[in-house]
Input
Amino acid sequence: MYESTVSDLVAELVDADPAACDRSGLVALVAVSQRLRGWLDAFDALHASRLSHEGSCEPAASLLTGGGRRSVRDADAAARRAAVCAQLPEVHDALAAGRVSAGHVDALARLTTELDDAARAELKDLQSAVVGSAAVMPVETFEQEVRKLGRILSRDDGVSQLARLRQQRCVRRWVDRVSGMCHTHLQVDPETDARIATALDAALAAARTRLQGDDVEFDHLKADALVGLITGAHTTHQRVPDLTLLSDARTMRDGPHDHTVCETGDGHPLPVETMRRHGCDATITPVVIDDDVVLNMGRTRRLATPEQRRALRAMYRACGFPDCQVRFEDCRIHHVTWWEHLGATNLDNLLPLCERHHHHVHEGGWTLTLKPDRTITLRRPDGTLHHEGPTTITHNHTNIDPRPPPTNDA
Output
């Protein structure tokens, strides 16, 4: 079915000389290689599917590890892809045509293992819509949408899913035989992870303050902060760390709806009941995005205020650069019109950017503009358009006031 197209793709890559291509030519070659890679992944799925239909006692993955010289992990992933492609033929066709990637299919494979037969039948009826979404979404975004879809298909309010995840918590430790580095892998549910992330962010902020001026790599600083939390280093007093969870008022009041926001700070969905449980003894901070008094500091302050950071956190789960997945807490708050160019510390001039993309727009020659509706225009150093559109990741209709609630202090 795809032989003539594949022959053309191979011929195009064989004749290509990436060293002689400009950027547009390289983009075209990447698209060609993606289509060819998708076809190969779909072809592996046909191999694995054929072996299983023959009734052989040999696992499909073993064919790929032996004859295919693949790692066991890659071979297992290919076998799971084969099962999905057999259940959802439109997904197989989209993979073979290069419209979706193996990462998209892997996300569906993880979903199908959690569904019963009735839910899988429903998923098959939805495969056209699923393929359409996968074709326009980065893998990370598609994975989040797939998790939401799984909860809908399984009629799960999230409580039982969270309980299942808690039963899978574990710690694994090992030593890399090549590097000699020691690894500790902690696997926990999203609610517990939110607690850990909040405590780590606080420890990291304290470490940055303590080591101001020292030339320490961010990854090293983060590792040191985590070790300090575990071993008790730099601890002067015990405190319960704040836990940041996001939800809209309608969900808390009436339950899930079409535009529900109910998640951890890193975007993992939480059951409404879990959110309400935390709300019983939590400090609830509403955010009103258009509050000029709180969110506009003009030139009176150089750095973003805590209130501005809360407002941005309600809108962004990660870096504001298109498709970047670096967590909001690991980003800098960037003045779109630079402070050095008389830019104001106002919400409509602030955008979270990770270290790499912050470097892009300062030293790298990229041009970034931000409109009042928070759509951005991003141009490469040569002036060509890279992106024009929204970059907010969380729903930006949330009605939240970033000011902390009043205290009883005099």
User: Anything to note?
Assistant: Residues 236-240, 395-410 have pLDDT under 50 and may be disordered.
